[in-house]
Amino acid sequence: MTVRERLLAAAAELIVEKGWGAVSTRMLAERAGVGSGVVHYHFDSTPAVLVEAATGALRASLAGLPDLLATAHRPDDALDVILTALDEAGGQELFTETFLAATRNEDLRRAVGDVLAEFRRTIATWLAEHDVPTPEATAAVLAAALDGVMLHRALDPALSRALVAPVLGRVLR
Question: How far is CA 78 from the centre of its chain?
Fold first, then answer.
């Protein structure tokens, strides 16, 4: 693992453990096993490391979405595979911290917005291929609902696929 990759992994861990605003350059360097100056050699600032680590983790979690959707034949199936993947994925705390921090960090807001736009496009394309009316609007609402489920899971882990799928499935029908 390169120094840069170690810094990004350390940042993702520290965001979860300490919260976005509590992560310092010293903490990042210590966790990655490097000197503090090395952090600023690889990144412009500590927030820049955090933004890249968090959005990288979000992108990684979406990397398999097209393959997941390829296994679905109906909108209910697509919803089920997405919710199952969310149940199995983990990373809940990083997702929550990232979304909350995006309300106060413009660079993060833009980066998360780009990830969300990619997610919506992927979903909308699948919906259009399966003749779901208004695929872009449906994808936007579905993405917002899934984001809400993820945020609420921070407070209520019982919001599993089994509970959510029947309700969101009615929206897709």
Answer: 18
Q: What's the CA gap between 79 and 77, in Å, rounded?
A: 5
pLDDT of 118 above 90? yes
Return the amino acid letter for 53.
A
Look at residue 27 in the predicted model and tell me its pLDDT: 96
**pTM (predicted TM-score):** 0.87
Alpha carbon distances (Å) from 106 to 51, 59, 102: 10, 18, 7
Residue among 76, 85, 58 nearest 127 (CA) = 76
Q: Calculate helix-pair angle for 25-32, 46-62, nearest 10 degrees.
A: 60
pLDDT at 91 over 80: no
| Together in a domain, 75 and 107 | yes
Domain count, the chain: 2
Q: Give the structural domain span for 117.
A: 64-172
- State the Cα–Cα distance between residues 159 and 173, nearest whole angstrom: 21
